[in-house]
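User: Could you check the structure of this?
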Amino acid sequence: MSNERLSEIERLRSTIDELTSLNEIASAISASISVENITEIMIDRSLKHIGASQGAVFLLSREQDRSDQLKTFVRRTSG
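Assistant: Sure, the predicted structure tokens are below.
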């Protein structure tokens, strides 16, 4: 098999993995589960897809006068 064909197969596999991750995230969002669980699924799938060792979601407070407006909502480290 040519290198060009192998490269195309690898690109297609990567695309399938990406679509699978997005589908799992969409399923979690449409399910009746808590925001925390949805966010954890999103972090887990994103870490797996991009090969990162850590990920986090931060929430920004709407209160203007607070110095601690940014709060960690979910933080995950892959094993």
